Predict the structure.
Amino acid sequence: MKPLLLMFAAAAAALAQDPPAPPADTPPGGGGPPGGAGRQTQPVIRPYEKVITSEAKTDDGIFKVHRIKDRLYYEIPKDELGKEFLWVAQIAKTTLGVGYGGQAMGNRVVKWERRGDRVLLRTVVYEVIADRSQPISRAVEASNNSTILAAFNIEAIGKNDAPVIEVTRIFTSEVPELSARARLRARGFDASRSFLERAVSFPTNIEVEATHTYTAPIEAPTFGGPRPETPPGNPFFGAGMRPGSASVVMHYSMVKLPEKPMMPRLFDERVGYFSQRQIDYGKDEHKAVQTTYIRRWRLEKKDPNAALSEPVKPIVYYIDAATPKKWVPYMKRGVEKWQAAFEEAGFKNAIIAKEAPTPEQDPEWSPEDARYSVIRWLPSTIENASGPHVADPRTGEILESDIQFYHNVMNLNKNWYFVQAGPLDARAKKLPLPDDLMGELIEYVCAHEVGHTLGFQHNMKASSLYPLDKIRNAEWLKTMGHTPTLMDYSRFNYVVQPEDQVDPKLLIPQIGPYDKWATAWGYKLIPGAKSPEDEKKTLNEWAREQDSKPWLRFNTAGTRGADYGEQTEAVGDADAVEATRLGLKNLERVSAMLLEAAIRPGEDWDELEEVYGRMLGQWAVELGHVANVVGSFDSQQKHGGQEGVRFTITPKVRQTAAVKFLNDNAFATPKLAIRPEILRRIEPDGVLNRLRTAQSRVLNALLANTRLSRMVEQEAIDGEKAYKPAELLADVRKGIFSELDAPAPKVDVYRRNTQRVWLQAMSDKIAGRSPVSDEVRPLARGEMRALSAQIAAVLPRTTDRATRYHLEDLRDQIAKALDPKFVPPAPTGSPSPFGAPGMDEEEHHGCWPDTYIGRE
């Protein structure tokens, strides 16, 4: 031990006399880790040629970017210090299980600031603001100090006093605000396996790529078996990286924000734009005022005096080179469909599509470059697409967009079109669909996602704003479509009947009157307006067109599902009962053509099983539209000066008719689903479970706690005009147990299945883990007691053995549900006041939900 202690003592003495010298290839003043963590050496500014040596490969642009082996230097012009840039992070290349190349990681505003002999990289936040001329601006600034992401020693001084800093470490080590760790669900970052790939400077932006290696613990060896399950994640990004290591290529774009900010346009809840919000403490009001701007592209006319002019700078979308060639023309048409809408705003050729250049045509072009908007085709089994965009937080100006088009969205659209429009289009009688039809469906998906990137939210109200008879009228469909907007979830026109002889091209949504009107509202120039406030009067007048033209209306703020017209996947929900009646007739036709359409010689029965499950899912979706009529309102978003209320209760007669329709169709056995020639090919058993799932969806929607609580309030406010919750529960029970009215009750296996669905729904309201209101719980108890008494009365005249045992079991289950000792304890803990973590709505839209119903 003694020699060892002497060695430590000698080493300590040496360290006390003189710290170790840095490696030979480390320039003085290199700084510490990003963000200033760890010890940072004092700046030592050296001669320029000693830092930027003859080995440097220099790229001139908004900054000079110098690359010396594995090191990266920025030479920042003095005029660019303090200017604001948008820093956009994307995963250019990812690892299996964690999303796809080209997906956004986030963005933030940054600025480079000189502080003595150092340069700081700071974030800039615009969530709270105040006019600098107002005294309160000092308090706002004091409460919103810019965070320092990283600090860099100045290594040298270039021409015109331009500081030179080494920025390698911000791209090759882990900066928390720029890290992909959370997205990958990684545990560690390995700097030794992370390095710079490329850096290019352009007149307004700098593009950098770096390989980052992350690690996740390997819990236990699997010896060649399946890898351990990972927690479920966002469907667009997967469950997380596999245990071990994963290397991803990160792409960072730093784009200068416009020197002259675009004049923003104030947001109006009556028109469906995404928005940019700020708390403006400089407003002369007796509260903290939220100022909200719409998100839109900057369009300026080449000829300001022309009613229709080309823009100075059009909106350009590039079609990813990875897109299958046969779909490229359809993708272009999907983009350029919107030209008609922009013409209403006074712009000709405002939006155009181009094919992305090849590396041979432009070696520096990159789809991750934040100057370009790109529609990315991703090799994914996800049946979806999304349309995020990046906006200037000062004004809402959209700067770029990268639409994510997942390969398997074709499968979803194929199934949807077959079950919704198969009987109406000769091209859809056989699967797979022909290329010309699939191209039209791709065009539709593309146009919808482009709409999001132009600033438009979903408008679920739209599909309920046409009279139902118009939706079957070919002449109406040619000019108005079956929904006023592409931005609704109103897919293919399943209300049309074969005898209507409608051209199949009219079954697919197109640019509609709402799209044109809303584009004009957001993009049309208002002469003489010098500020957003100057535009308010004109914008209000435009919005008031909704009073006389209902099809121009948008979702009503705060409906929370109460408006029967704000439904997803609906066609003709102005009259959901009749629309669903017609839709079910088409589903009967689909059921009859299913086997012949899905047979593929030499192939298994997976295609048949899938479209059968989608057909049953469509059945549940359409009947769910009818359920949403109950306890509902009709609504219109109105502002001061508009007559009438926003919410008008749905007439009681419509609600009771909806319940009768459900009793006759949703809770009766759906014969279209019971086809032995199909069932005996796809599975040995499972139809009862499928039907149980489908009917549970409809019944649980109809008897949702939120709906019943709303009906309690309607009864309190509207009295006899309201459909009372007690009446609803009684009507549903009588319909589902109608066999008990027969002289000798007999309940077949399908209806026994349905009746158990009802029992489970009611039991959940009494003994479930999700609490119901004090007004609803007694109603549920009363219904179960009423059924128990009715069963007791009919048991003596029930001779069918299976029915008798079923009814006796129902009574036993009711007794158990009503017994307090079987009530499970309430959930422990309380929900987080901050809600569940998630992404902003516009970051990733899941626009194409799956309705498939399987065995379980």
Notes: The first helix runs from residue 2 to 17. Residues 1-39, 220-237, 281-288, 826-845 have pLDDT under 50 and may be disordered. The radius of gyration is 32 Å.
